[in-house]
Records
---
Amino acid sequence: QVQLVESGGGLVQAGGSLRLSCAASGSIRSINAMGWYRQAPGKQRELVARILSGGSTNYADSVKGRFTISRDNAKNTVYLQMNSLKPEDTAVYYCNADRLVIAYWGQGTQVTVSS
C-alpha cells in the first residue's frame, strides 16, 4: 500500500502562483511514476504532469511552460509548482502514484483561481 497526502491548494487570483506537495509513505519502493491529475466540475479527471522514476517528465499541453513537476527523493515528496494560474486551472488536484500495476490516489486538494 502507498499513502499519499497532498497539501498546498487554495484560492489565488489569476496570474498568481501555488505550489502543491504530495508526500508518499508506505510501500514506496517500486513506484514507477508519480503525477498530478485534476478534475473540474462536470469534467473528467485529466493528467496535469507526471514524473517517471528515471526523472523524465511530461505535461498536459494546457500547462506547459507554466507548471513544473519535481521531486525530493529524500523526503519522498513530489511537488507541482503552478505559475501564471488561470481561472480554467480551477479544479480538485489529485496526487497519483503508479506502483507495479496499481494506481494510488491522494484525497485531493482544491485549487481555485479567481478572475
Note: The mean pLDDT is 96.
---
Amino acid sequence: QVQLIESGGDSVQTGDSLTLSCAVTARSFSSYVIGWFRQAPGKERDFVAAISWTGGSAFYADSMEGRFTISRDGAKSAVNLQMNNLRPEDTGTYYCAAAWVPNLGTGAQYNSNKYTYWGQGTQVTVSS
C-alpha cells in the first residue's frame, strides 16, 4: 500500500517558478517509481517526469526537460518537482503517482496505466 499527498500548487505568472512536493508513505520502496502527471481541463493526463526511488534515475517528457527537475528527498520521504519558466500551457492539475517498475528499460515509467497509486492532485495555474 502506498499513499501520496501532493502540495505546493499555486497561481503564478508566466516565467515564474514553483516547486511541487509529493509526500510518500509506503511499506517498501523497492523497485518503485514515483511519477508526476499533469491534466489540463478537458484533456488527458500527461506524463511530466518520474524518478526511481532506489536508484534515483530521472525521466522527463520531452517538452519539460530543461525546465522541470524531479528529485527525491529520502529524509522526508518525498519527491519534489521544481518547475521553472512556467508557461500558460503548464496550467493543470498535477498528480503524483507510484508504480512498481522492476525493469526501467521497459519504459513503463512513462505510462500512466502502469501507476497503481495516485494522489488527489494539486492545482497549478499560470497566467500570461
Note: The two ends are 40 Å apart (CA to CA).
---
Amino acid sequence: QLRLVESGGGLVQPGESLTLSCVVASEYPEDFGEYYTIGWFRQAPGKEREGIACIMDNGDNARYADSVEGRFTVSRDNANNTIYLHMNSLLPEDTAIYYCAADLDDKNRLIDLFYDYWGQGTQVTVSS
C-alpha cells in the first residue's frame, strides 16, 4: 500500500516555471524495497487524462509526451522518496490538475491503466 501526495501547484504566468513534488509514503516500510515507476499525468477540464512524464525506479529512462518534451523534466530522490516534475516555459494549455502515480511493475509507460496508486492531484493554472 503506497500513498502519494503531490504539492507545488499554483498560478503562474505564461513562460514561467514551476516544480511539482510527489512524496511516496507507506505504512509498511517493506514497501520501499519494491521497485516502481512514477508517472505524472494531467487532466484539463473537458479533456481526457494525459500521461506526460515517467521515470523508472533507478532514475534512468525518463520518458515524456510530445506535448512537454524539452520543457518538462522528471527526476527522483529515492533517499527521500520524492519525485519531482520541473516545468519550464509554461503555456496556458498546461493548465490542468496534475497527478503522480506509481506503477509497481516498474515499466516505463505513460498509460494510466498500468498505474496502481494515485495521488489526489494538484492544480496548475497558467494565465496572464
Note: The radius of gyration is 14 Å.
